[in-house]
Amino acid sequence: MKFLAARGQCNREEVSMCSSVVIYEDQNGQQYFEIRYAEYIQQKVLERFAIEEGDVVSILALAYLIKYPEYKYRKKILIKEEELMLVFEDLNMAAIYDLYHKIENAEEVEVDSFRHYHLI
Question: What is the model's pTM?
Answer without folding.
Answer: 0.83
